From TrEMBL:
Coiled coil: none annotated. It holds the Pfam family Abhydrolase_1. Residues 32-262 form the AB hydrolase-1 domain. GO terms for molecular function: hydrolase activity. This is Alpha/beta fold hydrolase. Signal peptide: none annotated. Keywords: Hydrolase. The keyword Transport does not apply. The keyword Transferase does not apply.
Length: 278
């Protein structure tokens, strides 16, 4: 049985760049789900419970954008350019209509795709994210480096601090999440190069300083999700997105941080499938 733990990694060549991706599930609806991941994330940091859960009903495609993991090229310094690369990848696979699931940085990119090429997107789920110019987004670089340092001092993955609360529930969820990410043993993705990671941080910083966009132009159904205690992209950004995107729904998970969808992955999958089905 094919799962995200053993699904093969594929490559597609687009204008001089080799994009690596993994595709799982049956495309019964004709509309695949494109998963857009977070800062410093390769395909191996996609939560297998989330990918497998969505793939039970839909075809899910996760990929390494330019300069990430096994995909060649240099990571852009703007979210807008990252979105253009994602759009090129989607079109190269032959799709003219997709659903988006974007987490954190992937949520920024999802917003840009919705604004740049709205006819490409049927529905979108954006989690742990915020609008251009949103509260506290300019501080992501500082918080990220601080928690990387904390992780080095405590011999823990920085995602332990960045994604989860430091209470009993948060610590348990962090251990379980990080354990799931190690389930794939063969054909694992390449680590992201430091220079491209820094370019992602510059893009996020610029996004945080950018002028607000007209999100009322987004007409598609959008599900907006976060935890009630997001340190990286403050939760107020999520409620702001909900207010500014006309056809949006809001879910705030209690006792959860930036990685709320990993802490409550079962409920997230259930809500995602219900939202895509409606």
């Amino acid at each position: 049985m094919t799962t995200f733990q053993n699904v093969k990694t594929e490559t597609i060549h687009i204008d001089g760049t080799d994009f690596q991706y993994r595709k799982l599930g049956a495309n019964n609806s004709g509309v695949p789900v494109i998963f857009l991941n977070h800062l410093a994330a390769t395909m191996d940091t996609c939560d297998p419970r989330i990918i497998d859960g969505i793939a039970s009903q839909y075809q899910v495609i996760c990929f390494d954008n330019k300069g990430v993991g096994g995909t060649t090229g240099k990571t852009p310094k703007t979210i807008s350019e990252m979105a253009k690369d994602a759009i090129a990848f989607i079109h190269a696979l032959g799709y003219n209509k997709v659903d988006l699931v974007g987490f954190s940085l992937g949520g920024f990119i999802s917003q840009e795709i919705l604004l740049q090429e709205p006819e490409l997107v049927r529905k979108a789920i954006i989690a742990g994210t915020g609008p251009a110019g949103g509260e506290g987004i300019k501080n992501v670089t500082k918080i990220t480096y601080l928690d990387i340092f904390r992780g080095l001092l405590t011999f823990k993955d920085a995602k332990t601090y960045l994604f989860f609360n430091r209470n009993k529930n948060g610590k348990k969820s962090a251990r379980e999440f990080l354990s799931r990410l190690e389930e794939r043993k063969e054909n694992r993705d390449k680590k992201m190069k430091v220079g491209n990671f820094q370019r992602q941080l510059k893009a996020i910083h610029a996004w945080g300083l950018q002028s607000p966009q007209n999100l009322s132009a987004i007409k598609q159904p959008v599900l907006v999700i976060n935890g009630d205690n997001d340190r990286m992209v403050p939760t107020s950004n999520t409620t702001d997105l909900h207010k500014r995107i006309p056809n949006s729904q809001l879910i705030i998970y209690k006792d959860a941080g930036h990685g709320s969808i990993f802490q409550y992955y079962g409920d997230f999958v259930k809500n995602t499938l219900a939202f895509l089905e409606r």
